[in-house]
Amino acid sequence: MRPLAAFALAASLLVTSNAEDTATCGAATYFPSEYSCYNDTALCPTAYSLPTVPCSGSGGCYAPQSLSCNGGILRTLPKASSPFTLTAFGTREPYRNVSVKACGNYLAIGANARECTSCTGVGPGVQCSSYKGRTVLLPDGSMAADVPGGQYWYVDPRDGVLQFTKAANSTSTAQALEIPGREFAGQRVTVYENGFFEYDSSSHYWLACLRTLPGGTIGTGRSWRIYSPSPSNLEFKECEKIKLVATAVDRKQGAYRYE
Ligand SMILES: *[C@@H]1O[C@H](CO)[C@@H](O)[C@H](O)[C@H]1NC(C)=O
Ligand SMILES: *[C@@H]1O[C@H](CO)[C@@H](O)[C@H](O)[C@H]1NC(C)=O
Ligand SMILES: *[C@@H]1O[C@H](CO)[C@@H](O)[C@H](O)[C@H]1NC(C)=O
């Protein structure tokens, strides 16, 4: 159980350098970009553009992506069991509520991040039209892909980047197991059902860092790749701290293959 942010009703919340108009919540004044007011009595802080909400009876605020509140009792959400899409939330506008997409073996966000799926060379019985072609991950480290051998998402332990494995070219189990990255599938990440997708560190945020897409010319077609917040990655330029939120979806929202 994580510590709770207490209800904050003091006017000392005001940050004087902010030009934003203030609002009132009961007797308190607050910045709407930083807090939400509930019932004119409770102020809860916003983090990564995600509002926290009061848990009535507990006297605290909680992130519904992490905890649930029932009769004043807060509980950690269950670990995810459903296939899910990922959405990024950052403090600044371009990073708020944007879909994470799979392309070129990386998971990325941003206007140039593409969903690169295909359905070619499939066996009989595969109905390409049945796939929605969205980037859908499973909590066990696999992706919602039906290519023989499957595909897997992982955090590369060398550089901490969030990637996915190439599709195997044969149905041989031995070959599928040898695909680089397969051995790290799902490691060091905890996924909560309709909640946070968290890297196993004390901070639980990710870094979205501007990178040129594979095959792209520098300065064009760049997207934000997603990195774990290791000390060396925190020194990158052009990165934004984000939280990743899993939303349960049907596995059929996925693809036959991610390219
Ligand atoms: C809001 O205030 C009303 C009246 O005091 C109370 O009945 C209600 O339970 C409160 N709702 C929440 C969410 O605290
Ligand atoms: C994110 O955007 C979708 C629509 O694109 C909306 O339904 C949803 O409420 C948004 N979520 C948050 C937390 O802002
Ligand atoms: C499958 O074949 C293509 C083209 O020959 C190659 O680019 C790709 O890397 C191969 N994939 C694997 C997993 O070996």
Automatic annotation (TrEMBL):
InterPro entries associated with the record: Eng1_septum
Keywords, comma-separated and alphabetical: Signal
Gene Ontology MF, one: carbohydrate binding
Domain of life: Eukaryota
Domain (Endo-1,3(4)-beta-glucanase 1 carbohydrate binding): residue spans on this chain: 24-74
Residues making up the signal peptide according to the UniProt record: 1-19
Protein name per Swiss-Prot or TrEMBL: Endo-1,3(4)-beta-glucanase 1 carbohydrate binding domain-containing protein
